[in-house]
Design brief:
Helix content: 55-70%
Number of helices: 13
Strand content: under 5%
Structural class: mainly alpha
Distance between the termini: 77 Å
Oligomer: single chain
Radius of gyration: 23 Å
Order of helices and strands: HHHHHHHHHHHHH
């Protein structure tokens, strides 16, 4: 018969239980996995039920579900991949619920941003708006907590660092403005003038850094100062978090331009020069390390020349 068991096992215990098979063999392992799956389904049901009446009330059951999904997945190798379809179902259930909650929390947050006139020149957090904005930030960070913990206290050099969800939402109107100026037929969108969009990003940093330092920095410090993320700049420092949120829209532009100028030596040389200058400015002037305090941020130039494999072509151009 299966061993007696507690009604609840902490998610972090599953891997340890599955790996400690001194006295019990695969029957015990399978039983523990099934117990974990049962707990995951209970949390999923509770989260879905709460979500209909109050998305905020669904947050804690979701976080427990997500931790269980991670723990069950990590336990699979030691359990010789027992019940893979059920574990996959739990993971997909958690992902689906995460998307629902993210969309709802983001939509509520966007309503607050509209009322505070973000990102206009007259942005204001007067009256109850500061409390509502803070609440929206906290809610999105709560939702992202499992994902942040997975990335841990050290972003690998080859990884794209995570964008904090509140900043992902706040950057959306800035992204639309960027696309308007640099993805269409506007005079600002010129292949021979990459400095236009690099300067635009620097302008955004100069314009909004003070706002985030004033209102976001205290939230990040309070939330992460005692966690394993306390030394990870892109989570604990508002300026680095803002830069990380702006990089995806710039990365999309850079990767789109390179193929267009690859066969035009002068344009390619000038572009890489401007890209290097931009990277250097982020590192030296803004102290950006991409979340890797040991090795530092490799930069968009590295992504283009190494990851996108343009180094050979660029070197050929520079030698001529």
């Amino acid at each position: 018969m299966p061993p007696k068991h507690p009604k609840y096992i902490h998610p972090l215990s599953y891997s340890k239980l599955v790996n400690s098979r001194n006295n019990k063999q695969m029957l015990t392992v399978a039983f523990l996995l099934l117990l974990g799956l049962k707990q995951a389904m209970m949390q999923s049901k509770k989260a879905r039920r709460n979500f209909k009446s109050s998305p905020q009330a669904a947050l804690q059951p979701y976080l427990r579900l997500q931790k269980l999904a991670i723990a069950l997945k990590e336990a699979q190798p030691a359990a010789e991949d027992a019940a893979p379809h059920l574990v996959d179902h739990v993971e997909k259930t958690a992902q689906h619920l995460w998307k629902q909650m993210k969309d709802t929390f983001a939509a509520d947050f966007e309503k607050v941003l509209t009322r505070m006139k973000w990102p206009g020149k007259d942005v204001s957090l007067a009256g109850s708006l500061e409390h509502e904005w803070t609440d929206g930030v906290e809610r999105l960070l709560d939702l992202q907590e499992p994902e942040l913990n997975i990335q841990g206290d050290h972003v690998k050099p080859h990884e794209e660092p995570l964008v904090l969800l509140p900043l992902e939402v706040m950057v959306r109107p800035l992204d639309l403005r960027f696309q308007y100026h640099f993805h269409g037929d506007r005079p600002t969108n010129k292949l021979d003038k990459p400095e236009y969009f690099f300067s635009h990003i620097m302008g955004l940093l100069n314009s909004y850094d003070e706002f985030f330092a004033t209102y976001l920095q205290p939230i990040l410090r309070k939330r992460f100062k005692a966690s394993n993320l306390s030394m990870t700049s892109i989570f604990i420092d508002s300026t680095s978090a803002l830069i990380t949120a702006l990089l995806p829209l710039l990365r999309r532009k850079v990767f789109g331009v390179i193929p267009q100028i690859g066969k035009q030596p002068q344009l390619l040389s000038h572009f890489i020069h401007e890209l290097m200058s931009f990277d250097t400015s982020l590192r030296d002037d803004w102290n950006y390390d991409g979340g890797n305090g040991v090795e530092g941020w490799k930069g968009l130039t590295w992504e283009v020349l190494v990851k996108q494999d343009w180094f050979g072509r660029w070197l050929e151009v520079e030698k001529t």
